[in-house]
């Protein structure tokens, strides 16, 4: 990696996302005293004086090209598995000519959770954490296990008992102690919280430590650079805990403060499965917070999050952007995955399929225009998820009917 050993960070402080109360940088923090996520704040004038947009563009296109806008102080804290810039792939047959998929499945551990966890683990290491616990629907646990094991941090991971088998196994194989729990992700979170209160480990639940957002915001930074510093008209983001949506919204503000983009913002569409849509319900009711969704169920496990600690931040960003929270049913999700694979050769995860399904519905209702530039997020590789059976066999010793092949 092409990074100097001692580098300044431009972090000035952390700030409660609800009350704006200030917290000191370079200290271990969880939630704010008000029980809300903390946001990292930077001296953007100094960062902008230290590096120009052109200088960033001249660097290798990985996540670390954005280092002046990231919190890690010591290069030695970074455990890298190769956090590449993910490509924007057109899917003209299943969506139309102006739609691009940001394919996050190509990141280490096969999901965009790598962006958040590479940052959070580096910061935990920098601040002396030796033991981390986390509730997960699968991909976050896998990314945590990979990065933490690699630098000798112990990890204990709790997932709902019906978490996809491959996720549970990859977590275990990458060195974590993983437990299936008879409940949903927030039930797992409660166990992590109890252990953390007893001082057994550091709590790495979504948004309960401040640095995953900083990793996830690189999706917004990358998007701006990839599109010539002109953001798209709309972004469809599969929303569970909402880290990525909140992070991108923060990234856009930082880029504008640097003078690297103008005031134009995409409409942000928070996409949820209709079997677990607390943000959609709160959006439609005009509420600032979302109540827990009971009996959550969907094929899109990554967005089966009945309650999000950053609910008000998701809702705030969606409303400020002029977007909406949209729910889509499992049949539409599966059909979108199928169409995209068959017609465009891109295998989406179900959560990525949800964004395509929501886009199609938004097109139908006139919420978006076919002429608008739209970005959908495919947040994990489709290869991690169950696929329909392909049962054909051929007996090479019997006569072969070539016309029938
Ligand atoms: C975690 C996850 C999501 C949700 O991301 P958030 O930023 O937490 O809302 C969506 N899809 C997949 C595959 C995930 O692993």
TrEMBL record:
Alphabetized UniProt keyword annotations: Lyase, Pyridoxal phosphate
| Pfam families per the UniProt record, alphabetical | PALP
Q: Which PROSITE patterns match?
A: DEHYDRATASE_SER_THR
Query: EC number(s) for this protein?
Result: 4.2.3.1
Q: One GO MF term, please?
A: threonine synthase activity
Cofactor(s) essential for the protein? pyridoxal 5'-phosphate
Q: Where is the Tryptophan synthase beta chain-like PALP domain?
A: 79-379
The organism's superkingdom is given as Bacteria
Q: What is this protein called?
A: Threonine synthase
| The species this protein was found in | Sphingomonas aurea
């Amino acid at each position: 990696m092409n990074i100097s050993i001692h580098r300044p960070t431009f972090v000035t402080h952390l700030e409660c996302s609800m009350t704006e109360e200030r917290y000191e940088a370079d200290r271990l923090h969880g939630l704010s005293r008000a029980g809300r996520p903390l946001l990292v704040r930077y001296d953007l004038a100094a960062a902008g004086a230290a590096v120009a947009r052109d200088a960033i563009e001249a660097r290798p296109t990985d996540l670390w090209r954005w280092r002046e806008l990231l919190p890690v102080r010591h290069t030695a804290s970074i455990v890298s598995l190769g956090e590449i810039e993910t490509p924007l792939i057109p899917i003209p047959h299943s969506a139309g000519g102006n739609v691009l998929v940001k394919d996050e499945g190509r990141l280490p551990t096969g999901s965009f959770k790598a962006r958040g966890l590479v940052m959070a683990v580096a910061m935990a290491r920098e601040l002396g954490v030796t033991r981390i616990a986390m509730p997960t629907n699968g991909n976050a646990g896998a990314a945590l296990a990979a990065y933490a094991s690699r630098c000798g941090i112990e990890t204990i991971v709790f997932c709902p008992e019906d978490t996809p088998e491959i996720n549970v196994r990859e977590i275990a194989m990458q060195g974590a102690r993983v437990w299936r729990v008879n409940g949903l992700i927030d039930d797992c979170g409660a166990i992590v919280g109890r252990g953390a209160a007893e001082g057994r480990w550091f709590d790495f639940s979504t948004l309960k430590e401040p640095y995953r957002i900083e990793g996830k915001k690189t999706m917004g930074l990358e998007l701006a650079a990839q599109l010539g510093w002109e953001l798209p008209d709309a972004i469809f983001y599969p929303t569970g805990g909402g880290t990525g949506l909140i992070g991108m919204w923060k990234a856009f503000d930082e880029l504008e403060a640097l003078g690297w983009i103008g005031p134009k913002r995409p409409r942000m569409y928070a996409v949820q499965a209709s079997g677990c849509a607390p943000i959609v319900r709160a959006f439609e009711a005009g509420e600032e917070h979302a109540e827990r969704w009971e009996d959550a169920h969907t094929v899109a496990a990554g967005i089966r999050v009945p309650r999000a600690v950053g609910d008000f931040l998701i809702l705030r960003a969606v409303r400020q952007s002029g977007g909406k929270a949209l729910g889509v049913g499992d049949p539409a999700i599966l059909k979108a995955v199928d169409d995209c694979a068959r017609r465009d050769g891109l295998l989406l995860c179900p959560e990525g399929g949800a964004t395509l399904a929501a886009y199609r519905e938004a097109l139908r209702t006139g919420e978006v225009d076919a002429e608008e530039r739209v970005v959908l997020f495919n947040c994990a590789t489709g290869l991690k998820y169950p696929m329909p059976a392909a049962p054909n066999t051929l007996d090479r010793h019997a006569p072969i009917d070539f016309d029938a092949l």
